[in-house]
Amino acid sequence: MTVSEHAEKNPEHATFAHVSRGYYPTIVALFTAVLLISNICATKGVAFFAGTELAIGPLQILPIITDGGFFLFPMAYILGDVLSEVYGFKATRRAIYLGFGAMILASACFWLLLRLPSAEFYTNQAALEAVVGVYPRLLLAGLAGYLVGQLLNSLVMVTIKERTKEKHLWARLIGSTVVGEFADTLIFCAIAAGAIGISTWDDFFNYLIVGFLWKTLIEVLVMPITYRGIAYVKKREPTYVIAS
Protein backbone atom coordinates (compact mmCIF):
# COMPACT_ATOMS: atom_id res chain seq x y z
CA MET A 1 0.00 0.00 0.00
CA THR A 2 1.39 3.39 -1.00
CA VAL A 3 1.41 6.46 1.25
CA SER A 4 -1.42 8.09 -0.72
CA GLU A 5 -3.54 4.91 -0.59
CA HIS A 6 -2.99 4.63 3.17
CA ALA A 7 -3.93 8.30 3.66
CA GLU A 8 -7.14 7.85 1.65
CA LYS A 9 -8.08 4.69 3.55
CA ASN A 10 -7.22 6.10 7.00
CA PRO A 11 -7.71 9.87 6.75
CA GLU A 12 -7.86 10.29 10.53
CA HIS A 13 -4.41 8.72 11.17
CA ALA A 14 -0.92 9.97 10.38
CA THR A 15 1.32 7.79 8.19
CA PHE A 16 4.42 6.08 9.54
CA ALA A 17 6.89 3.51 8.22
CA HIS A 18 7.01 0.03 9.72
CA VAL A 19 9.91 -0.91 12.00
CA SER A 20 11.59 -4.24 11.31
CA ARG A 21 10.74 -6.91 13.88
CA GLY A 22 14.10 -8.64 13.48
CA TYR A 23 17.10 -8.29 15.77
CA TYR A 24 19.41 -6.88 13.09
CA PRO A 25 18.91 -3.14 13.88
CA THR A 26 19.44 -3.75 17.60
CA ILE A 27 22.63 -5.73 17.07
CA VAL A 28 23.99 -3.12 14.66
CA ALA A 29 23.27 -0.35 17.16
CA LEU A 30 25.05 -2.29 19.92
CA PHE A 31 27.93 -3.11 17.55
CA THR A 32 28.42 0.58 16.73
CA ALA A 33 28.14 1.65 20.37
CA VAL A 34 30.81 -0.88 21.41
CA LEU A 35 33.20 0.47 18.77
CA LEU A 36 32.73 4.08 19.88
CA ILE A 37 33.02 3.33 23.60
CA SER A 38 36.06 1.06 23.17
CA ASN A 39 37.92 3.82 21.33
CA ILE A 40 37.43 6.15 24.30
CA CYS A 41 38.42 3.43 26.78
CA ALA A 42 41.55 2.75 24.72
CA THR A 43 43.02 6.12 25.69
CA LYS A 44 44.01 4.65 29.07
CA GLY A 45 47.10 2.44 29.24
CA VAL A 46 46.64 -0.67 31.39
CA ALA A 47 49.29 -2.96 32.90
CA PHE A 48 48.54 -6.38 34.37
CA PHE A 49 51.13 -8.10 36.59
CA ALA A 50 53.24 -4.96 36.56
CA GLY A 51 55.60 -6.34 39.20
CA THR A 52 56.31 -9.57 37.30
CA GLU A 53 58.60 -10.16 34.33
CA LEU A 54 58.22 -13.22 32.13
CA ALA A 55 59.74 -13.73 28.71
CA ILE A 56 59.71 -16.66 26.30
CA GLY A 57 62.59 -16.11 23.93
CA PRO A 58 62.20 -12.64 22.47
CA LEU A 59 58.56 -12.40 23.57
CA GLN A 60 57.84 -10.36 26.67
CA ILE A 61 54.76 -12.12 28.14
CA LEU A 62 54.55 -10.33 31.49
CA PRO A 63 53.74 -7.67 32.37
CA ILE A 64 50.79 -7.50 29.98
CA ILE A 65 50.60 -3.99 28.59
CA THR A 66 47.37 -3.12 26.82
CA ASP A 67 44.77 -0.38 26.66
CA GLY A 68 41.51 0.17 28.52
CA GLY A 69 39.46 -1.00 25.56
CA PHE A 70 40.83 -4.56 25.71
CA PHE A 71 37.64 -5.96 27.26
CA LEU A 72 35.30 -4.15 24.86
CA PHE A 73 36.91 -4.40 21.43
CA PRO A 74 36.65 -8.23 21.29
CA MET A 75 32.93 -7.77 21.90
CA ALA A 76 32.73 -6.05 18.53
CA TYR A 77 34.07 -9.25 16.95
CA ILE A 78 31.57 -11.32 18.92
CA LEU A 79 28.71 -9.18 17.64
CA GLY A 80 30.25 -9.37 14.18
CA ASP A 81 30.19 -13.17 14.47
CA VAL A 82 26.50 -13.09 15.40
CA LEU A 83 25.73 -10.85 12.42
CA SER A 84 27.76 -13.00 10.01
CA GLU A 85 26.32 -16.31 11.23
CA VAL A 86 22.69 -15.18 11.21
CA TYR A 87 22.43 -12.50 8.50
CA GLY A 88 25.30 -13.23 6.08
CA PHE A 89 28.19 -11.24 4.67
CA LYS A 90 26.25 -8.54 2.83
CA ALA A 91 24.25 -7.51 5.92
CA THR A 92 27.36 -7.68 8.12
CA ARG A 93 29.33 -5.57 5.66
CA ARG A 94 26.63 -2.91 5.91
CA ALA A 95 26.96 -2.93 9.71
CA ILE A 96 30.76 -2.66 9.45
CA TYR A 97 30.47 0.35 7.14
CA LEU A 98 27.99 1.98 9.53
CA GLY A 99 30.42 1.45 12.41
CA PHE A 100 33.24 2.83 10.28
CA GLY A 101 31.20 5.93 9.47
CA ALA A 102 30.27 6.41 13.12
CA MET A 103 33.93 6.28 14.15
CA ILE A 104 34.86 8.90 11.55
CA LEU A 105 31.95 11.10 12.66
CA ALA A 106 32.99 10.80 16.31
CA SER A 107 36.59 11.70 15.45
CA ALA A 108 35.46 14.74 13.46
CA CYS A 109 33.20 15.88 16.32
CA PHE A 110 36.01 15.48 18.88
CA TRP A 111 38.41 17.39 16.63
CA LEU A 112 35.91 20.25 16.36
CA LEU A 113 35.11 20.13 20.09
CA LEU A 114 38.75 20.58 21.04
CA ARG A 115 39.00 23.67 18.85
CA LEU A 116 35.93 25.43 20.17
CA PRO A 117 36.83 28.37 22.45
CA SER A 118 36.65 27.40 26.13
CA ALA A 119 34.53 29.34 28.62
CA GLU A 120 36.44 31.11 31.39
CA PHE A 121 35.14 28.68 34.02
CA TYR A 122 36.16 25.59 32.00
CA THR A 123 39.50 24.26 33.24
CA ASN A 124 39.52 20.73 31.80
CA GLN A 125 40.80 21.40 28.28
CA ALA A 126 44.04 19.45 28.83
CA ALA A 127 42.19 16.47 30.29
CA LEU A 128 39.71 16.54 27.42
CA GLU A 129 42.52 16.57 24.87
CA ALA A 130 44.14 13.58 26.58
CA VAL A 131 40.93 11.54 26.32
CA VAL A 132 39.39 12.48 22.97
CA GLY A 133 42.34 14.07 21.17
CA VAL A 134 42.51 12.97 17.55
CA TYR A 135 45.96 11.73 16.49
CA PRO A 136 45.86 11.27 12.69
CA ARG A 137 48.29 8.33 12.55
CA LEU A 138 46.58 6.41 15.36
CA LEU A 139 43.16 7.20 13.92
CA LEU A 140 44.23 5.88 10.52
CA ALA A 141 45.70 2.76 12.13
CA GLY A 142 42.57 2.06 14.14
CA LEU A 143 40.18 2.63 11.24
CA ALA A 144 42.21 0.58 8.75
CA GLY A 145 42.71 -2.28 11.19
CA TYR A 146 39.05 -2.32 12.16
CA LEU A 147 37.76 -2.23 8.58
CA VAL A 148 40.02 -4.95 7.18
CA GLY A 149 39.85 -7.12 10.30
CA GLN A 150 36.06 -7.05 10.55
CA LEU A 151 35.51 -7.66 6.83
CA LEU A 152 37.90 -10.64 6.86
CA ASN A 153 36.31 -11.97 10.05
CA SER A 154 32.89 -11.92 8.42
CA LEU A 155 34.08 -13.24 5.06
CA VAL A 156 35.91 -16.22 6.59
CA MET A 157 32.96 -17.10 8.83
CA VAL A 158 30.44 -17.00 5.98
CA THR A 159 32.78 -18.91 3.63
CA ILE A 160 33.21 -21.73 6.15
CA LYS A 161 29.45 -21.81 6.79
CA GLU A 162 28.79 -22.29 3.06
CA ARG A 163 30.65 -25.61 3.41
CA THR A 164 29.58 -26.73 6.89
CA LYS A 165 26.01 -25.32 7.01
CA GLU A 166 24.86 -25.46 10.66
CA LYS A 167 27.63 -27.82 11.78
CA HIS A 168 30.98 -26.97 13.36
CA LEU A 169 30.16 -23.47 14.61
CA TRP A 170 33.30 -23.63 16.74
CA ALA A 171 35.44 -23.91 13.58
CA ARG A 172 33.81 -20.84 12.07
CA LEU A 173 34.24 -18.81 15.24
CA ILE A 174 37.88 -19.74 15.80
CA GLY A 175 38.86 -19.55 12.13
CA SER A 176 37.30 -16.14 11.58
CA THR A 177 38.73 -14.81 14.85
CA VAL A 178 42.28 -15.90 14.02
CA VAL A 179 42.19 -14.31 10.56
CA GLY A 180 40.32 -11.15 11.55
CA GLU A 181 42.23 -10.42 14.75
CA PHE A 182 45.61 -11.07 13.13
CA ALA A 183 44.86 -8.76 10.21
CA ASP A 184 43.49 -6.09 12.56
CA THR A 185 46.51 -6.26 14.88
CA LEU A 186 49.06 -6.41 12.02
CA ILE A 187 47.65 -3.39 10.22
CA PHE A 188 47.29 -1.33 13.39
CA CYS A 189 50.83 -2.13 14.53
CA ALA A 190 52.33 -1.51 11.10
CA ILE A 191 50.79 1.96 10.87
CA ALA A 192 50.90 3.05 14.52
CA ALA A 193 54.26 1.57 15.60
CA GLY A 194 56.25 4.80 15.36
CA ALA A 195 53.53 6.86 16.99
CA ILE A 196 53.38 4.64 20.09
CA GLY A 197 57.14 4.38 20.59
CA ILE A 198 57.95 1.10 18.81
CA SER A 199 61.29 1.56 17.05
CA THR A 200 62.82 -1.94 16.66
CA TRP A 201 61.70 -5.11 14.90
CA ASP A 202 61.89 -7.07 18.16
CA ASP A 203 59.48 -4.64 19.84
CA PHE A 204 57.24 -4.68 16.78
CA PHE A 205 56.91 -8.47 16.65
CA ASN A 206 56.48 -8.65 20.41
CA TYR A 207 53.66 -6.11 20.30
CA LEU A 208 52.08 -7.88 17.30
CA ILE A 209 52.22 -11.45 18.58
CA VAL A 210 51.33 -10.77 22.21
CA GLY A 211 48.51 -8.42 21.19
CA PHE A 212 47.11 -10.95 18.72
CA LEU A 213 47.31 -13.85 21.17
CA TRP A 214 45.75 -11.80 23.97
CA LYS A 215 42.78 -10.67 21.84
CA THR A 216 42.26 -14.14 20.40
CA LEU A 217 42.42 -15.77 23.84
CA ILE A 218 39.70 -13.46 25.14
CA GLU A 219 37.39 -14.38 22.27
CA VAL A 220 38.01 -18.09 22.77
CA LEU A 221 37.24 -17.77 26.48
CA VAL A 222 33.92 -16.03 25.79
CA MET A 223 32.95 -18.46 23.01
CA PRO A 224 30.20 -20.04 25.17
CA ILE A 225 28.58 -16.59 25.34
CA THR A 226 28.87 -16.24 21.55
CA TYR A 227 27.24 -19.67 21.13
CA ARG A 228 24.32 -18.65 23.34
CA GLY A 229 23.94 -15.31 21.58
CA ILE A 230 23.85 -16.90 18.13
CA ALA A 231 21.38 -19.58 19.25
CA TYR A 232 19.15 -16.95 20.86
CA VAL A 233 18.99 -14.79 17.72
CA LYS A 234 18.53 -17.76 15.35
CA LYS A 235 15.62 -19.06 17.40
CA ARG A 236 13.83 -15.71 17.54
CA GLU A 237 14.70 -14.23 14.15
CA PRO A 238 11.54 -14.80 12.08
CA THR A 239 13.36 -14.76 8.74
CA TYR A 240 16.11 -17.26 9.65
CA VAL A 241 15.83 -20.53 7.77
CA ILE A 242 18.12 -23.45 8.62
CA ALA A 243 19.79 -24.82 5.50
CA SER A 244 19.54 -28.58 5.00
From TrEMBL:
* Keyword match Membrane: yes
Q: What is this protein called?
A: Probable queuosine precursor transporter
- Pfam family membership, one: Vut_1
Which keywords fit this entry according to its UniProt record? Answer: Cell membrane, Membrane, Transmembrane, Transmembrane helix, Transport
UniProt entry tagged with the keyword Acetylation: no
Q: Can you say where in the cell this protein is located?
A: Cell membrane
* Membrane-spanning parts: 27-49, 61-83, 95-114, 134-158, 170-198, 204-227
Q: What is its main location?
A: membrane
Function of the molecule: Involved in the import of queuosine (Q) precursors, required for Q precursor salvage.
Bilayer topology reads: Multi-pass membrane protein
- According to the UniProt entry, the coiled-coil residues are none
* Family statement: Belongs to the vitamin uptake transporter (VUT/ECF) (TC 2.A.88) family. Q precursor transporter subfamily.
HAMAP family for this protein: Q_prec_transport
